[in-house]
Amino acid sequence: MAKVPPTTNRTHEDKTDTIGYSRELKNPYRRFPSGRVDESISLLVNPGRQYRGRLYKSTNRLQLDKRNPSKSITVANVASSPFQKAMNHQTDGGNAVEFIPYTGKRGGTGCLNTATGKVSYGDPTKCEVPTGEKEEEEKPKPRQRKMEYPKHRHKPVSGEEELISTIEAESDYDLYKGAGKYKNPVQFIVSKGKRFKGSPLAATLIQGEQSNCFVNATRLVLANPDYNYAEGFVKEGANPPVLHAWAVTKEGRVVDNTLENPGSASYIGVVFPRQQYLQYISKNKYYGVLGGNKDQAEEVLRKGGIS
Description:
Blueprint: E1 29-31, E2 37-45, E3 51-56, E4 61-64, E5 72-74, H1 82-88, E6 99-103, E7 109-113, E8 119-121, H2 132-138, H3 159-169, H4 185-192, E9 194-197, H5 213-223, E10 228-235, E11 242-248, E12 254-255, E13 266-272, H6 274-284, H7 294-303
Antiparallel strand pairs: 1-2, 2-3, 3-4, 4-5, 6-7, 7-8, 9-13, 10-11, 10-13, 11-12
C-alpha cells in the first residue's frame, strides 16, 4: 500500500458533505485536519471533454479536477458501494465506469452515465458497471466495405467475372495526373488486355520465388523463345485481384511459376511480344512494364504501349 502523505495546510473540514481538491490528483489519499485519512480513486468523466476527478470512499462523492472547478457530483450512498464497484473495474488510464448511482441537488436519485454526463432517474441500486466482457460485446463492429459491381453486370458467379468487375470499378481513378492516353494502369489493362484461364504448372518447370512475378515471368521468356510476356491482374481463390506478370505461349496458354496453384486462377492482361519486351527492359534496366518503376509506367500510359 502506498505511503500516506503527511498533513498539509489544506482547510478540509471533517464532514462527509465537504470535499476539497487534492493538490495532486494522482495521490490516492487525503488527510483531514482531524487526522482521518480518506481513500479515493481516479475516474474519467465524460472522456470526450477530458473531465477527470476523484471518487472518495467515505462519502461516495465525486469531485472533478481544477479544470472544471464548478463541477461536482454527489454519488448516492447505497448498500452496493459505487466506490467498490469502481475499484473492481479500474483500468490503467483511470476508471471509465459508465453508470454509477447518483443523487441530485433536489433529492432525486438515479444512474449517472459518466461517458455522457446524463442522468436516468430511477432506482440507484440497479445501476450496473459494465464488465470488460460486456464492453467488448457492445463495441460496434467495423464497417465492411461491400463490393460494388457495375450496374450493367449481374453479381459475378465465377472468379473470372469477379476479376473483371473489380478492376473495371477502379479503372476510372486518375492515379497519374496528366498521364496521357490512360489515367492509370487498370484502365490500360482493361482497354488493351485479354482474358486468360489459368493452367497447371508443367512438371518440367521449376517453381519460382513468390512475390517476385516480374522476374519469374521475364526468366521464363528469356529461356523459351516461344513465350511472350504478359502483365495485368490475377485473382486466385478468395484473394482480391493483384498486379501480376506471367508468360504466354503462342497458343495463348498461361505459364505461371509464381502462384502455387495457377490452374485455379483467372487472369486479364496485356501481352507484349517477346523481342519488344526484352528490348524494352534492356533499355530501362527494370523488370516489368507497369509494376517496375513509376516513371516508366507513366511513359507507357502516355504512349499507350511500349517501344
